[in-house]
Amino acid sequence: MKALVYGGPGQLTLTERPKPELQEPGDAIIKMLKTTICGTDLHIVKGDVPTCAAGRILGHEGVGVVESVGVGVRAFKPGDHVLVSCISSCGKCEFCRRGMYSHCTTGGWILGNTIDGTQAEYVRTPHADTSLYPIPAGADEEALVMLSDILPTGFECGVLNGKVAPGATVAIVGSGPIGLAALLTAQFYSPAEIIMIDVDDNRLGIARQFGATHTINSADGKAVDAVRALTGDRGVDAAIEAVGLPATFELCQDLVAVGGVIANIGVHGHKVDLHLERLWSQSVTITTRLVDTVTTPMLLKTVQSRKLDPTRLITHHFSLDNGVDAYDTFRRAAETQALKVIINT
């Protein structure tokens, strides 16, 4: 089968690999139909994720059709159309019982990280009963690709961890796909203001279309002054970091109000400075999280009821044969105006 394979820092190739086989009773083999690229995949290709070894098939998102299941699988059968969660969960360990599926002792974020992933014609998914979701008949499967990771990540790590509430003032630093996912789902809670901050005017324009009340281009270094002016010099109740750079995390520390929350979503490959000399007395909460996908069933219902339209995040389409080009397009988003790309497998 064809697969996109990480060969070490800076190396990505379309390669022929053996079709995966069932290994455990709870496994399923999925014939992939559509997948996508995550910002985390770019971090892997850069060499920022040491748990991902050279030779790994990348990808942890997508939809497909069940081809075969292990003897222990009860919820799915061959022919079922399924959403593949980015997080594999046994449903039984201590962490799973606490709803922390990302820390499952035999799962978590393993697809495209410690085991082969979804950017291929086929993928083996462990713990199928608790890591796959049935796709309702007639659903837009392309839209549901966004439910594998990006929407639950923006919602859980940004909106829920950020304690976004009615009437709150929210700043989202980063108007890329994950920041826009946080913007879309933050509106479930009717905050008074959602301020999007980025250096890309195109993405800020999209943010306004998606419901941002204010947008700020931070390239001039005056984002803090602009936010202070908008908030009567108090800062924001929730500062959501959706980039993963030291400078953007520091910006969130400058934006948060007394009693506010800094919710980190970004994947950080380098250390950041924590300014406790300023924050220690401000009753500020800082949260971190790897998505657990506990909200996927709820988000699936919002998509089915048309309360949420994830297709707004999709800008480009590629075949798996052109998967390396898809990575290049996604990586050069400032030039290509890419948000999420769909790879048809």
What does this structure look like?
The protein is of the alpha/beta class. 27% of the residues lie in helices and 25% in strands. It has 13 helices and 16 strands. Strands 3, 5, 6, 7, 8, 15 and 16 form a 7-stranded mixed sheet that branches. The protein has a 6-stranded parallel sheet with strand order 11-10-9-12-13-14, sandwiched between helices. Strand 10, helix 7 and strand 11 form a beta-alpha-beta unit. Helix 5 packs across helix 6. The protein is globular and about 60 Å long.
Structural class: alpha/beta
Note the beta-strand portion: 25-35%
- How many helices does DSSP assign? 13
Mean pLDDT: 96
Any chance you could write out the topology, listing elements then pairs?
Elements: E1 2-8, E2 11-16, E3 28-36, H1 39-46, E4 56-57, E5 62-69, E6 81-84, H2 94-97, E7 122-125, H3 128-131, E8 132-134, H4 141-144, H5 150-160, E9 169-173, H6 177-186, E10 193-198, H7 201-209, E11 214-217, H8 223-230, E12 236-241, H9 246-255, E13 256-264, H10 276-279, E14 285-287, H11 296-304, E15 314-319, H12 323-331, H13 333-336, E16 340-344
Parallel strand pairs: 9-10, 9-12, 10-11, 12-13, 13-14, 15-16
Antiparallel strand pairs: 1-2, 1-4, 3-5, 3-7, 3-16, 5-6, 6-8
Helix pairs in contact: 5-6
